[in-house]
Amino acid sequence: MRYTWLDEYLLSKKGVTKDLKKEWNWIRYQVGEKLFAAVCLGDDDKPYYITLKLDPVEGDFLRRQYEDIVKQLKAKIMERRVLLDEKKNTPAIQVFRHRELAQKIA
User: Fold this and answer.
1) Which string of b and e fits 20-35 if b means at least 16 CB within 10 Å?
2) What is the mean pLDDT of the chain?
3) What's the whole-model pTM score?
């Protein structure tokens, strides 16, 4: 893991368990059945992003404080969805011919 300190910190909390949810490709951190953090892995099984649960008021505060980052994330998510839709609608033989598209999706 790229951020070993994060893994160590999360696992140091009382009652935390860690597992890999293969179908999501997420490393999950839970207390009991409650998920509170996840390291989301990309297609190459390297950390792609981290998601953390927090108090709704604090979350709202952070989203307002970092509006530009939120906008960039939303734009990146939309771009990825468009590329995935394009991949889904493109015959496999064409994907191999269009390496650039395949690399963008990966």
Assistant:
1) eeeeeebbbbeeeeee
2) 85
3) 0.58
